[in-house]
Amino acid sequence: MWYNGLIYKLIANKLPHYLIDIITLFLRNRTFKVKLKSSLSEAGHIKAGTPQGTILRPLLYTVYTADFPVNNHITNCFFADDTAILAQGRTTKFVIRTLQRGLIEIEKWCTLWRVAINTDKTRSVMFRKGHPRNNRQSVTFFEEELS
Fold first, then answer.
1. Where do the Reverse transcriptase domain residues begin and end (predicted)?
2. What's the rounded Cα separation, in Å, for the pair 54 and 63?
């Protein structure tokens, strides 16, 4: 989660300034070290994300993703930091076209709000009635064809 983007969204949602200051102090200037056997690394600075296990994490994630693209023909499903988008329709062509349009909007949102997507873990799954077609048209996400 990009800190400046989150702060912008907190301000846009009219959160009181004293709370924004507390959240900013909570997120900024965090460090980490890596321990491998008996060796400890130098401290590195955490530049994005929220600390795991904190009570604020789900709330801040919800604020950050509240403006995630919506579409009348697509259902967005969120669980923690995983997302699924679902579309249904009478024809495969309609579903694929709808999903591709939705993915383009999600790409724009992710780029604007600096959300990195691991396309290696991104999949496209098609469920349909009748006999499956081997020549199914695929969708692309960040210039990667989804399998």
1. 4-126
2. 15
Q: Are residues 109 and 137 in the same domain?
A: yes
Q: What gap in Å lies between CA 77 and CA 121, rounded to an integer? A: 16
DSSP 23: H
pTM of the model: 0.84
Strand 44-45 to strand 74-79: parallel, antiparallel, or no bridges (unpaired)? unpaired
Mean pLDDT by 10 residues, the chain (147 residues): 95 96 92 94 91 88 94 89 89 90 95 92 82 70 86
Q: Domain containing 7: what range?
A: 3-65
Cα-Cα-Cα-Cα torsion 6, 7, 10, 11, nearest 10 degrees, comes to -140
Q: Are residues 37 and 93 in the same domain?
A: no
Compute the half-sphere exposure of residue 122: CA atoms within 13 Å on the CB side of its CA: 18
Domain count, the chain: 2
Q: What angle do CA 85, 87, 93 make, to 5 degrees?
A: 130
Element holding 82 (H helix, E strand): strand 82-87
Q: 22-44 as b/e, with b when 16 or more CB fall inside 10 Å?
A: ebeeebeeeeeeeeeeeeeeeee
